[in-house]
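@channel sequence for tomorrow's demo:
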Amino acid sequence: MKEPIVKELARLGFVEGRNLTFSVRTAGENLVLPDKFAAELVALKVDAILAQGGELFVQAAMRATKTIPIVMFGAYDPVEHGFVASLAKPGGNVTGLGVDSAQLGVKRLQLLVEATGARGAVGYVTYERALGSDAERRTVKLLDEFARSQGLRLIVVGVPEGPQSDESKLEGAFASLHRQGATAAVVFDGATLDVVEERVAALLIQSRLAAIMETHSYSAAGVLMTHAATLDYLGARAAYFLARVLKGTKPSDLPVDQPSEYRLVINLKTAKQLGISISKTSLLRATDVIR
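structure tokens (generated this afternoon):
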């Protein structure tokens, strides 16, 4: 992801090795390292922190500093998580790209239903821990409202997060949806982190579930559909915010942006395995089709 950011920053006047230096810290899924790394960056007296990888990293950066500008990189529900006061007026030292998970979830369910003509019941698979949060309750509420408007029943299944989310538990979640009559599901990527993508796809097919996920490598691995903002777009927008704060604009004066360019991938090989036909409208809408 660094490449599109560096390219756009150079276009905006910040060239790595000339007037720009990156100090990169990679925590992966480690829940302890973000705080350690955020403290290290603050100690280096960096001019800005780019928090890429989700809410955990924004939270760690916010605990480490109240003054250094923090640029979010697609963090979910920044208002609900308390990162900013509002999208229009952030009000603190955090700005950048934020995602409304509820609206995005509904969009993905809409794309899935349109593509597959799902009937009866549809599933939503997410973190077990997240189900009690205000943001997740809102997501489930809006998904349920949309499902009902389509004559569908929504079934919600939670799986453990992180190291506890093994293949058997994910298989159990998918099998549960199948037993309850679901033929399609919106699956949150984070719920599958410890299971290789090909196995996620195989388990979905095994449970006869047409699924839509976020990261596009899942569709290449065999998941029916993926829908996410393009990396080039995200990188360019992150660079825009970094350039603005490096030039002295206060984060509180920079309204939070929401991604507007999305890529939709459909895997027709998987559709054939599931015995479903993809609508012509969806095929025309798709950015990429795997045949």
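heads up for whoever presents: The chain is about 40% helix and 20% strand.
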